[in-house]
Here is the input.
Amino acid sequence: MPWTVYVVRCADASLYTGVATDVRRRLAQHNAGKGARYTRARGPVTLVHQESAPDRSAALRREAAIKRLPRPLKDRLIRGEP
Here is the structure.
């Protein structure tokens, strides 16, 4: 089962990072108010970055690493800069 790490931009310009096996379904959940509590009050969300991971464990590790990044480095990641 392929896992994906994704970053979405909320309506208030904040970023949310998560993992899912079906990113389209997960984005629909976020936008319907049935996703993470963080995005419920900040919707709608827009997908700005995604990376595939070989398994759930690797996806969760990458999610944690992205969440630890300071905002300028997250912005670089989203723009695709090294």
Summary: The chain has a mean pLDDT of 94. The chain has four helices and three strands. The beta strands are 3-9, 15-20, 46-53.
